[in-house]
Amino acid sequence: MNLDLLPLQGRRTLYRWQHGQLHDHLRALLPQWREHALTITSQDLDSNASFVNYVRHHQVTDPCTGQTVELVEKSIRKVAFLGSQEARFYRHPDMLSASTQFQYPACIGVIETPWESLIFTDFVRGKPPRMLGIAPQLARGIAEQEALSQGYLSQQPAHKAPLFWSMDFYRPWFALRPRFNFARCLPQLERLGLHDERFSGLAEQFKAFTPLLARLGRAARSSPKCISHMDYLQKNLFVDKGQLLLIDWSEVKVGRVGFDGGAYLGALFRRKEMPMFLKAKQQFVDAYRQALPEQFDPEEALRNLHYMFLLNALFHCLRPETIAEYQEKQRMPMLRQKYDYLLGLIGH
Fold this sequence. Notes:
Aminoglycoside 3'-phosphotransferase, Chain: A, domain 2, Phosphorylase Kinase, domain 1, alpha+beta, six-stranded mixed sheet, 2 domains, 13 helices, disordered N terminus
């Protein structure tokens, strides 16, 4: 049973001052179940996102129809009683409701306690996509998502501005995260160069990215704002009857046009060999440029894409864990090839 068929009045945010049982949460979110006993089977799902306590797949026998309802419960712990970014995103179901390129799991509701945000969404099924093969389709989806969310954000009343301000990518609690500071990894690269002459002197060359990223970051800051998913990995995408389904908004930000494309290409770059990456990149950029609505400047969007690609690719390719992985698999020539590609982008 798809939760899109359930009453809309169940989709809301509830506030509670104490922990509750799953049965109580579901009865509160779905009023038609309020007077019934519920039969539930649960299974933990994998999750490595920051501050996530657990993610669970529940199968509930609908006491009204006898059908099986499948849903996902995500518990996100709070810091200083502050609600999660993902919970805030789900409070705006109309933002992406007009999407035709992506499908999103329906949100049943959000329950906030002083200690956690509980997010209940539809459980989706489909095949994991070939991340190289979906580049054009993903480009069209991202362009549409940016246009829909940019329009939504620009129309929000002033009293909602603080919520979206706190979700902005340029807040210190995002911009200072290790994944956006590749320079922390350079000492490890220097040590590698002492033992492997193929990497000698590269750490000094990579330092040239610091002023480049600062310049790109300043330029991006004044670009049109939009919702950015920021986590385009295979585990977060499914294909069902040719339609792309996008899940897991744990990394959601108020980003800028082009950011999501850079995040996708950064993920491809660190996982794929160079010829495959370069082919997918060209397909993505061509489709994205063509799909981008007139309200956006294509050159500005592609500049922001380049910025986010560099932030992701530099960190993930320079971090000690990546170097150790390539050493273990005896693939250091491939890693040097990726370093050469990145260094060739200095000045662009």
